[in-house]
Amino acid sequence: MIKAILIFNNHGKPRLSKFYEHFNEDIEQQIIRETFHLVSKRDENVCNFLEGGMLIGGSDYKLIYRHYATLYFVFCVDSSESELGILDLIQVNSQVFVETLDKCFENVCELDLIFHVDKVHHILAEMVMGGMVLETNMNEIITQVDLQNKMEKSEAGIAGAPARAVSAVKNMNLPEMPRNINIGDISIKVPNLPSFK
Amino acid sequence: MALKIVKGSIDRMFDKNLQDLVRGIRNHKEDEAKYISTCIDEIKQELKQDNIAVKANAVCKLTYLQMLGYDVSWAAFNIVEVMSSSKFTYKRIGYLAASQCFHESTDVIMLTTNQIRKDLSSPNQYDTGVALTGLSCFVTPDLARDLANDIMTLMSHTKPYIRKKAVLIMYKVFLKYPESLRPAFPRLKEKLEDPDPGVQSAAVNVICELARRNPKNYLSLAPLFFKLMTSSTNNWVLIKIIKLFGALTPLEPRLGKKLIEPLTNLIHSTSAMSLLYECVNTVIAVLISLSSGMPNHSASIQLCVQKLRILIEDSDQNLKYLGLLAMSKILKTHPKSVQSHKDLILQCLDDKDESIRLRALDLLYGMVSKKNLMEIVKKLMLHVDKAEGTTYRDELLTKIIDICSQSNYQYITNFEWYISILVELTRLEGTRHGHLIASQMLDVAIRVKAIRVFAVAQMATLLDNAHMLTGNTQRNGICEVLYAAAWICGEFSEHLENPMETLEAMLRPKVATLPGHIQAVYVQNAAKLFATVLKSQEGNTDSTTAQEASQLMIDRLPLFVQSANLEVQERASCILQLVKYIQKLQQKDVEVSEEVCALFAGELNPVAPKAQKKVPIPDGLDLDAWINEPPSESESEDEQPKAIFSKEEPKHSRPRHTEVDEKELARRREARKQEQANNPFYIKASPSSQKVYQETPGVEHIPVVQIDLSVPLKVPGLPMSDQYVKLEEERRQKERAEKKKKDKKKRKEKRSGRGKKHDSGPESEEDITPAHMVDIVTEEMPENALPSDDDERDPADPHKALDIDLDNLESAGKRPLADSEKLPVRSHRAAEVLKSPAEDEEGENVSSLEPKKKSSKEKREKKKDKDKDRKKSKEEKKKKKHKHEEKEEADLLCGQADEPAFQSEETNEVVTPPTSTSADEAATVAAAEAAPAPGAISVTTPDSEPEEPKDTEMEETKSSKHKKKKQKREKEDKEKKKKKKHHHHHHHHGDKGGEESVQNGTVEEEEPLPPMSNYCLLAENSYIKVAYDIQGNLQDGSQVVVSVIFENKCDSFLKSMEFNVLDSLNSKLQRPEGSGPHDSLTIPFQLPPGVSNEARFVFTVQSIIMPQKLKGTLTFIVKNEESSTHEKLDFKLHFTCTSYLITTPCYSDAFAKLLESGDLKSSSIRLEGVNMPFHHLLARICFHHHFSVVERIDSCASMYSRSIQGHHVCLLVKISSQTVSVDAKCDEPTLLGNVLDEIKQTFSQC
């Protein structure tokens, strides 16, 4: 079982938190902080498994993480999950993010995750459900996510157009447009101006 | 309309959306909190609008804020609104928000049931998908119960996308509602072979999770998984299956043997490291389960170890880590094969990665030998000095202690070295393990006698330098060592070089800042030291030192007398007075040292930590037996007997033999060895050590190796363990040289120190001798100690409830109808819908019950008012009622779909209608039957699963408070209803002479709710009402218990009640010994006005085949203020044959066998004009005549019951258009005839 999936950046700012067990908000924040402290002080070339973390888990639980450019992807899992399997899953995970978000927003970077945390959640839901791995096949995940996004677009129809236009205009003012970002093995060029879609 | 929408969306354009919110937060880095609070205000405004799009946008923003740590539970209702939007876009936002912030105590969750059900059955697969995903995060026991059927249906959905989600979510449903596991399991199993790999993977996932917690129930699936393992190509699935096998093999070694080969092949062939690793892991598990004695598997071990070595040597730190992890598993059973890779593991100790170092540390445990222990520990001490984080340092500390103390200090050759290591460890700042060091110090000092001199010296130094340890007392765990130091100095004070100095050190004012328990030890041991000082000064003409000591005590102790700690205070004031008295005596030149020393005389021996628990119960002592007759339960609850004495612990001390001749010693040793071998709790060293022990007689006569005097006994300041390493090296060399000269015999003698029975290692190490004689006193254990299982499972573990035997379920028809199997109705709502047969039976009752029901309804509604939505909830309830009916239908349909799977298993010949049953159908039937019984909420199987009901209860109590309240209310309601019913029984059955002396039978008996049985009227007059109930006693075939309730109806006090029955030849009232056969029994209570109480009477019955009536009288005194009168009430106790029957569950296969046996006589009756549904009829037979349903098929059912004398009574009940035919078989025809007559009578009354 997966107990929690956390994504935060190099400064410990949460970009996505998904707990498959209930904690109240304060504890959740504490867990994120604690996890960040544990993970961030590790060197780049050490193993990706980590025991400890008082708040979440206990002896049966492990933190498995990957660090991509500015982001940490952390899974807290128990002993029923294969460590290497989860690492692969994180790889798939980030690739799926990149692939799917790529289709929506040209290029992906931390900012996309920040601004579209809801979409990230929806993608994640196709991979992990209630703490159990639902699908590991990247193509299948992407297909399902695309189909759902299509549905969303068709529902928005005419009514959605003005909102999209406004949001595109707002996006133009992005002061911190990223220059060059890497996620995983995929390097991203200098982004284009946001386009109307 | 369209215009309105467009206008709405144009307005909306300028609302903040999620992106704007995020951007805003990023632009307000300085006053983020303030900005967010204004945003929340805006969101609150948006939520008030009618436009669902605006609401969805607001909820979306809230989800983001929740992630940042803001509590958004106040918007729970709005989230539900958004969830119920018809648009997928909004629905998805709603469900996401719900999945992020709903949990079991969110009370609006109960409003979502119908919405979720609607979404689950939506034609749009993504609506369903989103609902399933959401539900997986916030499913509650209520939701699980209400939706289990819907989800089960989805498991066979046409779209694999839905199927896989439905399969996966079932695990969550099982956790919350364990009763669903049984009916759902066959379908889940089917899904293992689903054509879609995703669904298959989901099913494997779920079963693996289930099996991990309760592996034994899933052993029967092993062949199926084996097939999957050899056929599947999906690594993810393979990993799961292989992990599952790892959990199963310990239970079934044969499986392990079969697995080795395919796993080995996989290890050789696969390129995926994750798969390889799991294979190795499982092979290890198999090898462990096969235990030793399997020499041909050494190849497999070698293979594993080799592969692991490759992993560890890999540059990828992850593989290195996992390799070490798996290695530690092998270590437990095959230490030798790991030891050959010592180099590699020691290398890992220096790795820069902390995780890897920690894993290597685990392995070190198995790496040490006498030879290298000092070296390894030295290395670890270096790490301790370098370590940065306290966690890692603490880990190192515990590991050092573990390694050194393992197997009773097997590898320690020089305890002085060990003590200095411990003392060095005290220099660690901020460690949490002070107590660990302390307990080691104590342990070593007590058990290794030879070391005491050295230990005491070290401890005295520690005490002297206590200020170095107590920098920051309260937080600093290390000051715990002072506890040990003080105790050791006190207890072994005769070894102290300068007791006066130590005494002074222990009484310094700074001590008062230590934690209370340590101060207490200080005070006590100061007294011990004082005694020693006095003793040492004895005979000394100059008594100044002794007087100085007394004065010191008198000066310093008042500080402790003022302590806030009670223990310290008490000890200090006690000792202070004592010392004052001693001082007086000293001034008179009286010799006191003898008496003072006597205070602390005697030696303490170590006792094993669990010794007390393991004291066996002596033969013939039954702790559960009553010493006196238990007081009748009718007495008020607060008068429960208390245990008045506790068990005496057998004292046990090891006999000390000091001067015994060799022969005697050898004999004793042999005996003791035998005893130890038989005693599983004797702390043994590795088996090899025993061998060594055997080979070396005459242990007593070894010359004690002198402590190397080059070691200064009192190290100035703190000692350095490093010195010992060097010294040890020299010593060993010297010894080796010496040894060469000595003849073989002598060497042999020398090798084995007295008490060195635990002290040996591998062959290569035998030439290392301990530095000095070591007497490791083993811990004492009581003789014949019993094993006790300490690792019981946490009772709160939700998985415990899922421990359900699923194998029997394979043949659905073969199980008795378990009431818990009914999936759809277990709810309070159901109880409200379905009425008890008693209610149907007595039409007039219904009217009187009506107000009660209403009030309970009102209550429930009141509760719902909290949710501001009375109307809605009412509707919902109605719908639910409706739904229950639908569900039953659906179940039947499902049942038919499942039919082919079960047909082959259908073997029951007795009940032979052509249709076969399925689990689902059976469940429905059970539901239908269980429901009519009063209070049939969460009804449970009678006997087959005794644990299950408890677990359910636990689950339920564990769930939110909210729910508890609800249940409580339900219970109250029910009880009220029940009470009402009692009264009715009394009124209506009064003239029937108590023919229905029944109890609630199947359902009620096992119910976790307070037991309620149907009492019927025995007799009544204007003063008192008496009702009774007869129950058989299964333990004693000749006894029945009659419970009688006496109710005082008048305004006077009833006392001196006496109960008497005119015995017949067959039935006798059991009277206390010494009383005559016609004496009456005094009822042990009095009845104030309006009070009722219950008494029980035991009757002995010889023959149970005939019903019987016994005449009796009750006499009592009615006392009021003016007068007291003697009253008498006659009654007839009716023992029906039914009352001798006991509801006993029966498996259908056992039932069939019983019928086939031919020992039973048959008989039958026909009942005409029975106008009630079949399940009511069955329920009534169960209810009134103590039967249980074995199996029901359509309008035909087999039932079973047993008499207290073991007669089997089998019924086959069929109904066709108002005619019921009951074919019955029993080994006693008369009994059968009477029971049938009684059944007939029951139905003729309705």
Automatic annotation (TrEMBL), chain A:
Its main location: membrane. GO terms for biological process: Golgi to vacuole transport; intracellular protein transport. It is a peripheral membrane protein. Keywords: Cytoplasmic vesicle, Golgi apparatus, Membrane, Protein transport, Transport. GO terms for cellular component: AP-3 adaptor complex; cytoplasmic vesicle membrane; Golgi apparatus. InterPro entries: AP_complex_ssu (IPR016635), AP_mu_sigma_su (IPR022775), APS3 (IPR027155), Clathrin_sm-chain_CS (IPR000804), Longin-like_dom_sf (IPR011012). Residues 1-151 form the AP complex mu/sigma subunit domain. It comes from the Eukaryota. It is found in: Cytoplasmic vesicle membrane; Golgi apparatus. Belongs to the adaptor complexes small subunit family. Part of the AP-3 complex, an adaptor-related complex which is not clathrin-associated. The complex is associated with the Golgi region as well as more peripheral structures. It facilitates the budding of vesicles from the Golgi membrane and may be directly involved in trafficking to lysosomes. In concert with the BLOC-1 complex, AP-3 is required to target cargos into vesicles assembled at cell bodies for delivery into neurites and nerve terminals. This is Adaptor related protein complex 3 subunit sigma 1. The gene is AP3S1.
Automatic annotation (TrEMBL), chain B:
Residues 660-807 form the AP-3 complex subunit delta domain. Residues 777-794 have a biased composition (Acidic residues). Keywords: Acetylation, Coiled coil, Cytoplasm, Golgi apparatus, Membrane, Phosphoprotein, Protein transport, Repeat, Transport. GO terms for cellular component: AP-3 adaptor complex; axon cytoplasm; endosome membrane; Golgi membrane; presynaptic endosome; terminal bouton. Residues 909-918 have a biased composition (Polar residues). It is a peripheral membrane protein. Residues 741-757, 854-863, 976-990 have a biased composition (Basic residues). PANTHER family: AP-3 COMPLEX SUBUNIT DELTA-1 (PTHR22781:SF12), DELTA ADAPTIN-RELATED (PTHR22781). Belongs to the adaptor complexes large subunit family. This is AP-3 complex subunit delta-1.
